[in-house]
Amino acid sequence: MRWLTLILALLILALQYPLWLGKGSWLKVWEVDQALKKQLAENERLKSRNASLEAEVTDLKTGYEAIEERARSELGMVRRDEIFFQVIDEPGAAPAPGAPP
């Protein structure tokens, strides 16, 4: 009877091995689930970035405000009826009161 119990216990262990440590084990399923959650979060981040880029492209295609804003900030352009003033701080001069450091 002792041999039969030992054989059955070994058989149970042999059947449990694939469940816990085999190719489709619980550990592998958990790892794949974690990777899936990480990928879904990355996909959501990229979807929001794509939506903002699509809105910017649409704005650039249809409106002139975005084009004007880019021309002013990136190229330093001004309109014909505007006067551009450039203020240069002298080195070593104390900043004006209330000015950010």
UniProtKB/TrEMBL annotation:
Chief location of this protein within or outside the cell: membrane
Record GO biological process: cell division
Cytoplasmic face residues: 1-3
Keywords (A to Z) from UniProt: Cell cycle, Cell division, Cell inner membrane, Cell membrane, Coiled coil, Membrane, Transmembrane, Transmembrane helix
Coiled-coil stretches noted in the UniProt entry, renumbered to this chain: 36-70
Compartments where found: Cell inner membrane
Membrane topology: Single-pass type II membrane protein
Spans within the Periplasmic topological domain: 22-101
Highest taxon of the lineage: Bacteria
One Pfam family in the UniProt entry: DivIC
Description of how the protein assembles with itself and partners: Part of a complex composed of FtsB, FtsL and FtsQ.
UniProt similarity note: Belongs to the FtsB family.
Summary of the function given for this chain in its UniProt record: Essential cell division protein. May link together the upstream cell division proteins, which are predominantly cytoplasmic, with the downstream cell division proteins, which are predominantly periplasmic.
Name assigned to this protein: Cell division protein FtsB
Lineage: Bacteria, Pseudomonadati, Pseudomonadota, Betaproteobacteria, Burkholderiales
Encoding gene per record: ftsB
